[in-house]
Amino acid sequence: MGGNIVLNLVKTGVLILLCIIAFLAVRQYDSFEDRILEVKSLVEETKSQTRDNAEAMRKLRRENADALSKLRRELKRRTVVGPADPGEADPGGDDPDEDEGGSDPRELPYWPTEDNVLIDTANEPAPAEDAPRGGNLNYYIGSNLSSLNQHTLNEAQLADNIAAFVYQKLAIRSRVNPDDYIGEMANRVTISEDKTVFTIYLQKGLLWHPAALSPRERTGPRKWLADLGTPEVTAHDVKFTFDVIRNPLSEASNEASYLTDIKFIEVIDDYTIRITWSKKRYYNKSSTLSLLAIYPRHIFGRDESGNELPLEEAAQIFPQHWYNKRMCGSGPYRFVEFVDNAYIKLERFDRFVRTGPAADAMTIHIISDPEVRLQRFKAGELDVCQMEPAQYRSEYLDGGPGSVKEMIDSGKAELRKWEGATYYYIAWNQRRPIFREAAVRRALAHAFPKARVARDVYAGLAIPHDSPVHSAESSYLKDLEQFEFNTDTAARLLDEAGWKTNDKGVRAKVIDGRMTELRFNILVVNSRVVYRDFSLLFKKELAKIGVIMELQVREWNQLIKTLDDKEYDAVTLGWGTSWDSDPEQIWHSRQADVPRGSNHCSYKSPIVDAAIEGLQVEFDNAERKKLWATFQRTIVKDQPYLFLSIPLRPWLINTRCGNTFFNKLRPQIWLLPWTIKEPG
Fold this sequence. Notes:
Layout: H1 2-27, H2 32-49, H3 54-78, E1 136-141, H4 156-166, E2 171-173, E3 181-183, E4 186-191, E5 197-202, H5 215-219, H6 223-228, H7 235-246, H8 253-256, E6 262-269, E7 272-277, H9 284-289, H10 297-300, H11 311-317, E8 333-339, E9 343-348, E10 361-366, H12 370-378, E11 384-386, H13 389-397, H14 404-409, E12 413-419, E13 422-428, H15 438-446, H16 450-457, E14 462-464, H17 487-496, E15 500-501, E16 507-511, E17 514-517, E18 519-525, H18 529-543, E19 548-554, H19 556-564, E20 570-576, H20 584-587, H21 606-617, H22 621-638, E21 641-654, E22 657-658, E23 675-676
Helix pairs in contact: 1-2, 1-3, 2-3, 7-11, 15-17, 21-22
């Protein structure tokens, strides 16, 4: 009882101090910074004294964080900062531009100077000031993860649905207008006139989360890490991340391929870093700002005993780092727990200095079976669920008692359809002799019934697609060659290429001195029922023209390993698309033989290579359109992929959730601004 009285007195005292400071700040602006620091100090002292009372402290920290956020917004509105020198990057240092009130612009979420390529974050989706706070959001991913290191595990569901809430990048594309960039770690970025030098100013006060450690680790083998607490994010962390990823020993080739032209990286001071590229390049901006999630040097630059490692050693252990089953970022949520094949638990990081989430926690359940996901949504154990097309048909279009349709009609759930930033495809491994010829790949494209699959397998929730560029992008070419479904055409093309039917009714041809039948296996992930369904339909159509295809259904981690080793015939998958991105990673010849690279079908084309290299250096929009046209026409002609469709995703949302937000970028369902209407 006595502890509760003391806690209430502390809470009341802190709130009174905040109100007094807020009032005085408006009238006495010249001492504003000192008062903010005083409030920070008092809040930190209060937190350390009451840490054991978890539930009470969660509410107190939330109230303090909200009050400080309001004070910072007031400071931002009143701060006017002039540019250092138009056209020249300010080197940073210990004496940044200051307004007449003495505030440090490095503490702002956005540093408003004329040379700043970032835009203000004020219009980005966020919980309203009066939105309900608290509660736990329940989401899911479709398969277990072998690692939580997104730099070495090339897995979209890890990067988009988990790491995006824990880690931060220097900047990201605006979720309102993706052509603009907003800061995450950075509050100001300047670019030299020749587009080769990027000077990045980090926001002060960003902290790394406390490391996720067991009680035994905190007092035993990981005491060194527990003692480090929550260090401040610095430019040294940024340089470390770039250096490790660029080192071939890190096995982060998917990202490293975009960073090969960096000339050098300089730490100017703790909050300023300069990245210089060897040449002017269109994608330097996105590769510098939004490619890499920044990792903490104090963890990934050390061994298990806490000894600092030289860069080469840090890169070498990076793929199997002892912390790879945990996460430590600087984002709005901190990692708490990962239980294999069960869930990943995140909690709100109350010392996050930018606008944070409303929900106290987020649980990402690991559920591979779509039926189990739907049943758990119906039971209220998931707040959001994407229906498979068959479920959409049975549960919504034909829904009866106990169905999703009934939930929607009764106001317990809502349905929202959203065009995915994804396209699906079948890739032909061109290391296999039967897929070396474009004529074979073109014939197989004519044997796939796209329209029927969209209608029957996807229940109308798919848009037939034909390009390596998403149809929502301005660079998408609308008059591409079409491969209409026609098995007669497919058979004729195979005949012309010398693939004749043998006495078993199977197409065969002499390749490399051996009679080879046109039969192959297609890899299908076990968690995607629609992949299996349309593959079975495709199998029947291929059998009609003497082509034998068998399904190999694999768990996700097994499939990815097979893909990385390039030990497969064909695979059906999807690419999540990024706005105006460099196609080199997936399509350039120099990526075809990279271990664990994204050009897993080993496609090589000098015409495509030239178009990609042109896009990397061309800034004129008219010329870029021509290059994108050549790129698309060549790939569609060669058919290294059989392009299938773009999904129209039906999302179910529990109506206890408010302020729900979808956008054009991945992940399109962005949970950060969501609220729980009655968190309890």
